[in-house]
Design goal:
Number of helices: 17
Strand content: under 5%
CATH class of the largest domain: Mainly Alpha
Number of strands: 4
Shape: globular
Distance between the termini: 33 Å
Radius of gyration: 22 Å
CATH superfamily of the largest domain: MFS general substrate transporter like domains
Number of domains: 2
Strand order of the largest sheet: 1-2
Largest sheet: 2 strands, antiparallel
Helix content: over 70%
CATH architecture of the largest domain: Up-down Bundle
């Protein structure tokens, strides 16, 4: 039975992130191709906006009213259904040879994401509750389960990169055609279908107990707003402010990496290169690097401390953007590959180390709220503002052509992002004061 429980949680985590991986890094390709490229910033900022309040609301419901595994299933059912609606809007428009209605597709996509984002926390709640009730140690047994989430994310990236459905109904895998799912609304279908599958699966999972909170906490406390008192500490205030500023980098490459790499298909010299034709597959190297870099964090955090680790992450963002600006899918493809590898350091050393720092530096009574505040500043406010601002920069230097390729001065675009990251790095080095003690507990 215990082994079966772990396997069931592995399947849950695999599907949880496979849903996201189907479209997160390549929906920009589809939007640009159907004349909705200007909506890319909004498609990505929506995730940050709903992350400000939806996870907290669903967390309260799971704590008091509905068993977490059932609420997880309900959220995936709604998110999956709405994502299929987004697919159908795109599919119907494609049959008529017209641009999908921008209001309709943005609305159903927004509602789908609003119900999906809380599942990231709910799936952890289900896993932790199930492991504890079966006598497992969450610290030891959860990470090997969670890594299959990254595997699922990568698997669907590879799938939509290669899967092809022709107009006459033929399905096959390819590395070189313009009907692959990474360019069409079929990526939304894959995400929605997987969401429906996981919804059904969640209702078969073992029951998780509802922990009734009978305390007299205010709504503000339940929503985690009491964590804002941490801003009274200069050290924590600086940390959260810079978390927001660096969080502005998070969604930039999610939104624009694949349209950027794919844009080289519109340049004769690079049109037939492997990289230009397989942007989603190339981008998946970032997720592979992310999974591997998690293993480095305990050593680096203990040896160098949070400030140096955060500085390493910030400089990694400089390299991430700079290498994009200097590379190309031809002889310079090695710069793209190196940029993907560097992403693991940029993402993990910032997000995971930051969460561990918050856990260590805050009182246990508000740790959950403090973690929520960290997510709010990075994936909420930071990612939302960053995506919208990045969209303005890209729109200034690059334009969509008739073939759906975003062409223009990409080098200046990426160098602006790199310069921004470098400025944040320098300011953080001088303004964030923290003395590391290697003798404190890991």
């Amino acid at each position: 039975m215990p082994k079966n429980i772990k396997f069931r949680l592995i399947v849950m985590n695999f599907l949880q992130f496979a849903i996201w991986g189907a479209y997160l890094t390549c929906v920009g390709n589809y939007l640009g191709r159907v004349g909705l490229g200007d909506l890319i910033p909004w498609f990505y900022s929506i995730q940050g906006i709903v992350s400000i309040f939806m996870p907290a609301i669903m967390g309260i419901i799971a704590d008091k009213y509905i068993q977490p595994q059932k609420l997880l299933g309900i959220c995936h059912l709604l998110a999956g259904t709405l994502m299929l609606c987004a697919w159908y809007i795109g599919y119907s428009a494609g049959l008529q040879g017209i641009t999908p209605d921008r209001t309709s597709i943005l609305l159903v996509y927004t509602l789908s994401v609003a119900f999906y984002m809380p599942t990231l926390a709910l799936s952890n709640t289900v896993a932790f509750s199930t492991l504890r009730s079966n006598g497992f140690d969450t610290i030891t047994d959860f990470p090997p389960i969670r890594v299959f989430g990254t595997v699922g994310f990568i698997a669907t990236m590879w799938f939509v990169n290669c899967a092809t459905l022709t107009t006459d109904g033929q399905f096959f895998f390819s590395l070189d055609n313009n009907m692959r799912f990474q360019y069409t609304e079929m990526q939304l279908f894959v995400s929605g279908a997987l969401g429906m599958l996981l919804a059904a699966y969640c209702f078969t999972l073992p029951q998780c107990a509802i922990t009734k909170d009978n305390s007299d906490k205010s709504l503000a406390q339940k929503l985690g707003l009491d964590a804002f008192k941490l801003f009274k500490s200069r050290k924590m205030a600086m940390f959260f402010i810079f978390s927001m500023l660096l969080g502005m980098s998070l969604q930039i490459t999610n939104g624009y990496a694949t349209p950027f790499i794919t844009s080289f298909k519109g340049v004769a010299e690079y049109a037939n290169t492997f990289g230009a034709n397989n942007a989603t597959l190339l981008t998946s190297l970032s997720q592979i690097s992310e999974a591997l870099c998690i293993l480095l964090i305990p050593f680096f955090l203990h040896r160098f401390g949070i400030k140096k680790v955060m500085l390493i992450a910030m400089f990694a963002w400089v390299l991430r953007f700079g290498l994009f600006g200097l590379g190309d899918p031809g002889n310079g493809v090695w710069m793209f590959v190196l940029s993907m590898i560097v992403y693991g350091v940029a993402f993990d050393f910032f997000n995971v180390s930051g969460a561990l720092f918050v856990e260590r530096e805050t009182d246990q009574s508000i740790q959950a709220s403090a973690q929520g505040l960290f997510m709010l500043m990075t994936n909420g406010i930071g990612a939302t503002v960053g995506t919208l601002m990045a969209g303005k920069v890209v729109d200034h230097f690059c334009k969509w052509n008739a073939d759906g390729y975003l062409l223009g001065d990409w080098q200046s675009t990426w160098m602006i992002f790199a310069g921004y990251s470098l400025l944040i790095t320098i300011l953080f080095a001088f303004l964030f004061k923290y003395k590391h003690n290697q003798n404190i507990k890991k």
